[in-house]
Amino acid sequence: MAFADLQKVLISDSLDPCCQKIQQDGGLQVVEKQNLSEEELIAELQDCEGLMLQSANSRAHLWDDHVSGRFPRQGLQ
């Protein structure tokens, strides 16, 4: 999957507002939900093609564990 194939992205951490604006200006639907439990985050990821979080986030593994079969991890890792 290429970045061009993304339609909906979840922002799960507190990020600079410009991150959301850049994604929206690029045509993506952006959902921002912070402080989700692990179960809530997994549920939200089922409806998203992308996840934006801070690099120090210890829950990045949830993408690999629950979504990567549909959408492999891309970008800065």
- CATH architecture classification name: 3-Layer(aba) Sandwich
- The counted number of beta strands is 3
Low-confidence stretches: none
Proportion of helical residues: 25-40%
Structural class: alpha/beta
| Number of discrete domains | 1
β-strand percent reads 5-15%
- How does the major sheet shape up? 3 strands, parallel
The overall average pLDDT, rounded, is 77
Q: Work out the helix count.
A: 3
H-E order:
EHEHEH
Question: How far is the first residue's CA from the last residue's CA?
Answer: 16 Å
How do the strands line up in the largest sheet? Answer: 2-1-3
CATH superfamily: NAD(P)-binding Rossmann-like Domain
CATH class: Alpha Beta
Q: Could you tell me the radius of gyration in angstroms?
A: 12 Å
- Under CATH, the topology can be stated as Rossmann fold
Q: Can you put this structure into words, describing what you see?
A:
With 77 residues, the chain is an alpha/beta fold. Helix content is 30%, strand content 14%. The protein has helices spanning 17-25, 38-45, 61-66, and strands at residues 8-11, 29-32, 50-52. It has a three-stranded parallel β-sheet with strand order 2-1-3, covered by helices on one side. Helix 1 links the parallel strand 1 and strand 2 (29-32). The longest helix is centred in the first third of the chain and has 9 residues, at 17-25. It is globular and about 30 Å long. The model has no long low-confidence stretch (mean pLDDT 77).
What are the defining features of this structure?
77 residues; alpha/beta; Rossmann fold; three-stranded parallel beta sheet; 3 helices; 14% strand
